[in-house]
């Protein structure tokens, strides 16, 4: 048996380049803004209801429970307020 000679071919290899410096644009549409606004209103109302119940109840256990709920719902509402402000800022910067 005779060995066949291997033919060397010139093959160019291309490396994949990543765009490190470019950042992706964030799309802000009305649906996201409306969702953040609805959640903000919802948690603000829950926080107010919890605070009102905290004010009127005399039982110590319920007062502690509703004060804790008012604080938790208030912090969540503040978080959604921050998200809403970021979305509005991105929408303004896009124009």
Describe the protein's architecture and organization.
There is one protein chain. This protein has 95 residues and is mainly alpha-helical. 65% of the residues lie in helices and 0% in strands. It has helices spanning 30-56, 60-94. The N and C termini lie far apart (75 Å). The model has no long low-confidence stretch (mean pLDDT 85).
- Report the count of strand segments: 0
Question: Overall pLDDT, averaged?
Answer: 85
Unreliably modeled segments: none
Helical content stands at 55-70%
Please report the number of helical segments.
2
- What is the terminal-to-terminal distance? 75 Å
Order of helices and strands: HH
* Biggest sheet overview: none
Radius of gyration from the CA trace?
Answer: 29 Å
Shape by Cα distribution: elongated
Topology:
Layout: H1 30-56, H2 60-94
Helix pairs in contact: 1-2
Which terms summarize this structure?
95 residues; mainly alpha; 65% helix
Summarize the structure.
The chain has 95 residues and is mainly α. The protein contains two helices and no strands.
